[in-house]
Amino acid sequence: MKKILQLSICLVTTITLAQSRTLPIDTVITTQHNATINGATFSYTAQTGTQPVWDENAKPIASLHYTYYTRNNIKDRASRPLLISFNGGPGSGSVWMHLAYTGPRILKIDDEGYPVQPYGVNENPHSVLDIADIVYVNPVNTGYSRTIPESGKEVDRDKFFGINADIKYLAEWLNTFVTRTNRWRSPKYIVGESYGGTRVMGLSLALQNQQWMYLNGVIMVSPADYKVIRNSGPVAEAINLPYYTAAAWHHKALPQALQSKDLLEILPESEAYTINQLIPALAKGGFLAEAEKRKVAEKVAYYSGLDQQDILEQNLSVPTNFFWKNLLKDKNGFTVGRLDSRYLGIDKQLAGMRPDYSSELTSWLHSFTPAINYYLQEELNFKTDVKYNMFGPVHPWNNDDDNTREDLRQAMAQNPYLNVMIQSGYYDGATTYFNAKYTMWQVDPSGRMKDRFSFKGYRSGHMMYLRREDLKTANDDIRDFIKRTMTNGESAKY
Asked: Is residue 77 over pLDDT 70?
């Protein structure tokens, strides 16, 4: 009877533990691996785990999940760059760039980025791990990261879910991480995709002024500049046109005079028209002369592949969702993707103002979700029943007091070492490449630091690295950027 009772207690305990969907707030799992990158074969260490976020009273209020890769057998770790990687959303985990861009393992997809089965991962021969150690960080409620407690009235959402709160706690978390890993001496780079572009602009100054941590580089991948995206007006409305040109060109929907040329031949033409003609025309609003209005509509139709009458009916300002729905309406009836307009979708009906769903995002979730769940648990040995949040509950998100553009300018002014590179896909309709260029132009109105900015464009979309050709090129661009901005003993002074 005693043995039966003991067995029952053990079973109850086991079942109770198995049903607990929580992670230790401070833990790490270490594994060893090999990679061949840029023709060089080497071993590396992967550490994946959790590290607390502390409040003002040194109490843990959240735990962030991260994955940290270091190349083995490095004699001088102090001079080896550290690349700190974030994705966006807000509310998105770091899975995207981790498993498809810069990391040593990459999900199984075809050469253009579409899912293939069986799901899983392969080696990434283009990863930048050959020249830099990398840490991928999941902000609160993304990936395996969670608040403490996970929900309820005890959670102080104001500490996490807003532009400035996000920047503040992540800067503090990075201070702890850099201290624990002994990377204070290393050249440091931060990369952020989409909303991560806003995040890293803000972090550049927060790390300097709140943590006394100075960077060598900020990399913005398909950055979201909410000073444009969330606003209406001539600039915000007009600035989409060069993206329309690119997407229409890809789908062979432009007039022959444009379609017969290469993409990079026609984009400067569309950009010039946008800046010099379309913005001034939209600025006149309803007082634009009728003849001029029709002339502008004709030109916008020419550069967008849309119907001239539709443009007139939209008062010359065509919303992006209308473009995604209607570009191919009379051609093959497909919708085009928001984040990557190479992707096609099928709606219930042809008529309408917006697509029924995002064809590109559903495709990406199709391939990324099984890949990250397999990879972390089976290859990195991070065992848990906690759900990996591809997108987590972070809303409502406080967008007040967005000073991130100015933060980046101030950080660059204070730090002569700091350089910026922007990477964008021409077919990204959410955070368009021309919007990214505009952001770059606006960061430093004086133009005195423009030699420290660079822009790289790719023939793909928001996650331009999904296209095999661009995966290599974009990683090479990061590699070159890091090499170019390594100071090699040069003093930080003007």
From this structure: yes
